[in-house]
Amino acid sequence: MMLRYALTSIRHRKGGFLGAFIALMCAAALITACGTLLETGLRGRIAPERYAAAPLIVSADQNVHQTTVEKKKGRTKVKHKAKPVAERAWLPESTLRTVRAVPGVKSATPELTFPARALVPTGPSGAADAASRTAGSQGELRPDTASASYGHSWDSAALTPFELTQGHAPSATHDLVVDQGLATRAHLALGDRLMVQSTQSPRAYTVTGIAAPADGGRLHQQTSLFFSTAEATRLADRPGQITVIGVTPETGIAPAQLAEALHKALSGSSAQASTAQASTAQASTAQASTAQASTAQVSTAQVSTAQVSTGDARGPVEFLDAAGARVKLVSLGGAIGGTALFVALFVVVGTFALSIQQRHRELALLRAIAATPQQMRRLIGREAMLVGVVAGVLGSLAGLPLGAWLHDRFVAMGAVPATLERAVSVFPMAAAVTATLLAAWAAARISAHRISRIRPAEAMAEASVERRPARGRIVAGLATLVAGAVLVAVLSVLRTESASTPVTFLSVVVLSVALSLLGPVVVRAAAALLSGPLATGGPGGRLATANLRGNAARMAAAATPLALLIGMTCTVLFVQPTLADAARAQTRDGIRADWVLTAQGPGVPGEAARGVRTTPGVAAATEIVHSSVRVGLDKYAAQGVTPGGLSRTWNPDVTSGSIDRFSADNATEDRSAAVSQLAADQLGLHPGSRLSLTLGDGTPATLTVAAVYARGLGFGDITLPHDLLARHMDNPLASAVLISLDQSGPSVTHSELVSSVREFQGISVLTRSSASGIQADKQQSNAEGNYLAMGLVLAFTAIAVVNTLAMSGSERVREFAMLRLAGATRRQILRMLRIEGLAVLLIAAVLGSGISLAVLVAFSIGMTGAAAPSVVPIGYATVIGVAALLALVATALPGRLALKPRPVEAATARQ
């Protein structure tokens, strides 16, 4: 029976339920879209390209492992954890002999992979004329950026397999085979000279061959350049190491069977290496757990060993960035989806509460004719579930193209590599429908709490006059406000971006919930403050003031989502600038160099830095490379710097120890490091401490701490010797070179510095101010992706704002008719609506801005040490302007529609 009543109620009050339907449908679409991202991170396929013809791939493990043994109350609990390293891990060359000795192996092909990018002539086509190609004088060159580009030895061409379509294989040092895609783009022919920038200085090669995959296709995600074996070994610069081994089994041997045999053989051969490095690994783990060590816990780091991959598991070995993007998508999809669900519940509760408030007379009449509280809850619950199931199904269907668009945008931004294929199934849709139904049910239960519990006589009385907020609501609002204040306080002591980001947005939502619960009280207080200014608006202003006081719940329902929109948008927009501006300021203050070398391509070659260093009048030239390292399983941003003359180019604001000691130690065999104050506090370090860490390619290292510095946000948390860090990076070229001039010697002009690097294509000599973004730009690399993802939540919130305001205005037909019958003109009522809209906007702007400011100040204190959030005036004005446009349009249009019926007909119509 309740189901039939619910259907009848929805049929006769379509407008009242339309708002809840739109809110739930948008929530379902957003949850489905985020769910597809999460599923892509969990199940997305990474198809192999270069290794397509090798049934098995042997590679180094890309993870740092840790086993934790906890002893508590006589029980022993063992936990295994693993975290990926930042660079490619390499195999010892001896692994090749072990693999070839395994029975069932038909062939084992070693592979060398290293960055190598063609430099092509500038211009729309990238082509050079025949004379310049053969002469080798190609004028201005630019890197070919059509796709990722790697160099290999021709010996490993069979892994795809590549076959020559023209020319012959490279045999001499300056021979080169290019793939068909590059040959087409750059209009290359046999005998052409092509400049290539790799891990060393740029070098010109002769195109001796053009190759393409044997199936006649091409590689979609990368460009391949093939060198002779000797030249590939020189460019890889990894003596005694190889990237992977491609294995082909004997006829009749299944890949899975051979993979098991290889795993056993490789596990045995790696045992000695693991034992030899065990002490270093244990020290690394012990260093990481200093702050939380206890006698009941023992941790041991496990050195990575070789692993065997077959089928689609070969893709993550080939495309390391795609494998890392899985974690990013899981975390991003989960975080944004969770935030969307929380915001959806918040918005839908408000929408249902407004809908029930508009139907209060009808529901009160049901209570008066003996409807029980349980029947009331069932009726409202059935209504919510009917609306929720339709909205959930339609929204989940709309979420599929939204998820596809979102994935495409992430790929276009570079936040997600194209090699990670999008996964789609019914699970995100099912989760969205389930979440929508739960949100609808919860919203209905919360909204129906009051009307189902009060006595019938009280219900009829409250239907005529708006009641004051219940004491329980005020208590809950104050408790939520305290919870939000606690979150803000916690945020002010969080010093890492990964920890502070989720707390930042959670704080905004929790404070907005507190505002929602305390909304009627806040609106009444605001109406008292605004009564004077509003009275100057004539009759319309006085009517608006009366409405603010007498219908505070309705006004609060309109102001709350608008405040959430303003607060969330300002927080999203100004979190990254706060961090980036602080990083730039630290970098700007810490750079002492007079000039900076930067590169248009992969980086500044070491030979260019050495050329500048030997130029008369140059006191110091500091090469900088960036990577990340792990101490235990904790990840830290790291930079490598050349130690000679470091104090002349760099001032990290040393708080203890000495940069001169760092330079002196690293000029000898006694390696030392400098760490930020944050890393020192987290790891319990001080000058003289031993720091054990894992470098980017999984190699363990132990150094002595020489200095602790304050400007970690601008320069990273750990500073290492350049040679040590660069040797274990995929791209060892410097991201910048800081140049300090000898003021007592001969002066060096800008043109002289340019002349010293003229032979290196794409190298620029810039002023010191150009170095201010070296580290800050890296910290903002994912900002666009975060803006896009959070933009969807903000768009949903904006829709909810319009939805709520439209619902609030469309149900005032009878009120407007009574005002017109009492003598108010159409113009006066529209003026009243505009003043109400401006008052709601002002209240929402003050509250939303206040919430955002409190959160941003706490974020700034925790991350930068100063209460100095970066608020862009134009950005803030745009947010308020958009909110004003939404508020006024969503108020004016329903108001004009509500004024269309004749006053007498509207006043006497059935409610």
Task: Describe the protein's architecture and organization.
It is a single chain. By secondary structure, the chain is an alpha+beta fold. It contains 34 helices and 28 strands. Strands 19, 20, 21, 22, 23, 24, 25, 26, 27 and 28 form a ten-stranded mixed beta sheet that branches. The model is unreliable at 125-137, 271-286, 288-296 and 775-781 (pLDDT under 50).
List keywords for this structure.
nine-stranded mixed sheet; alpha+beta; 911 residues; 34 helices; ten-stranded mixed sheet
**Helix fraction bin:** 40-55%
End-to-end separation: 23 Å
Most strands sheet: 10 strands, mixed
Backbone structural class:
alpha+beta
**What would the principal axes of the Cα set say about the shape?**
elongated
- What does the radius of gyration come to? 33 Å
β-strand percent reads 15-25%
Pick out the low-confidence regions: 125-137, 271-286, 288-296, 775-781
Average pLDDT, all residues: 82
**Tally of helical segments:** 34
User: Could you give the count of β-strands?
Assistant: 28
Please describe the topology of this protein.
Elements: H1 2-12, H2 14-43, E1 56-60, E2 63-72, E3 75-84, E4 91-92, H3 94-100, E5 105-111, E6 114-115, E7 117-121, H4 130-135, E8 141-143, E9 148-153, E10 162-167, E11 175-179, H5 180-186, E12 193-197, E13 203-213, E14 222-227, H6 229-236, E15 241-242, E16 244-249, H7 255-269, H8 271-276, H9 278-288, E17 297-302, E18 306-310, H10 314-318, H11 320-358, H12 360-368, H13 373-413, H14 427-447, H15 449-453, H16 456-464, H17 471-491, H18 497-517, H19 519-535, H20 538-550, H21 552-590, E19 595-599, H22 606-613, E20 618-631, E21 634-641, H23 646-649, E22 654-657, H24 659-666, E23 672-676, H25 677-683, E24 690-694, E25 700-709, H26 712-715, E26 718-721, H27 722-726, E27 736-741, H28 750-756, E28 763-767, H29 776-779, H30 783-810, H31 813-821, H32 826-864, H33 873-898, H34 903-908
Parallel strand pairs: 9-14, 11-13, 21-26, 23-25
Antiparallel strand pairs: 1-16, 1-18, 2-3, 2-17, 4-15, 5-16, 6-9, 7-8, 7-12, 10-13, 11-14, 12-13, 19-27, 19-28, 20-21, 20-27, 22-25, 23-26, 24-25
Helix pairs in contact: 1-13, 2-11, 2-13, 2-14, 2-30, 11-14, 11-18, 11-21, 11-30, 12-16, 13-14, 13-30, 17-18, 17-32, 18-21, 18-32, 19-20, 19-21, 20-32, 21-30, 21-32, 21-33, 30-33, 32-33
